[in-house]
Amino acid sequence: MPVRKGKTGETAAIGARIIDKHKKVVSAPQPESDSEADIGALRKEIDSLKAKVAEVAKKVRSRAAEIPQQTEATVRLRPVLALLIAAAAATAVALLVSRATAVPRRSRYRRLVDEMQERLADLRMLR
């Protein structure tokens, strides 16, 4: 391979490597890829992913249609059980909401630090 001069300094091409003498860098040249083949492969992959997404969406829609029917049948056949389940769900939601709005407990360490800060503030006021 011929020796050529680049913008950054002298470079020499030896075999499959390019050596920059000033930067002391050895790099392999990047092979030229067939972009049309890459794009074709990506299009095939996108098409297969679209098919999978459509299949999953179809399953979700069919399952979503079944859920109200099952709920309706359960309420008709077992009204007491349905009321108990609804009450349990409402209780769980209420507990979660009340717990989320409650002030979290301070740790023992944090309480001690707050107490020490209060005492120091009291001592400073006595001066």
Descriptive report:
With 127 residues, this protein is of the alpha+beta class. The protein has 3 helices and 4 strands. It has helices at residues 35-77, 79-101, 108-126; strands spanning 3-5, 10-14, 17-20, 25-27. A 4-stranded antiparallel sheet has the order 1-2-3-4, with no helix packed on it. Helix 1 packs across helix 2 (79-101). The protein is flat.
Give, in order, the helices and strands. Answer: EEEEHHH
Alpha-carbon distance between the two ends: 88 Å
Rg value: 36 Å
Mean pLDDT over the full residue set: 78
Q: Uncertain runs with pLDDT below 50, 5 residues or more?
A: none
Beta fraction of the residues? 5-15%
Work out the helix count.
3
Residue share in helices? Answer: 55-70%
Write out key terms for the chains shown.
single chain; 127 residues; alpha+beta; four-stranded antiparallel sheet; 4 strands; 67% helix; 12% strand
Question: Brief overview, please?
Answer:
The chain is of the alpha+beta class and 127 residues long.
Write the layout of secondary structure elements.
Elements: E1 3-5, E2 10-14, E3 17-20, E4 25-27, H1 35-77, H2 79-101, H3 108-126
Antiparallel strand pairs: 1-2, 2-3, 3-4
Helix pairs in contact: 1-2
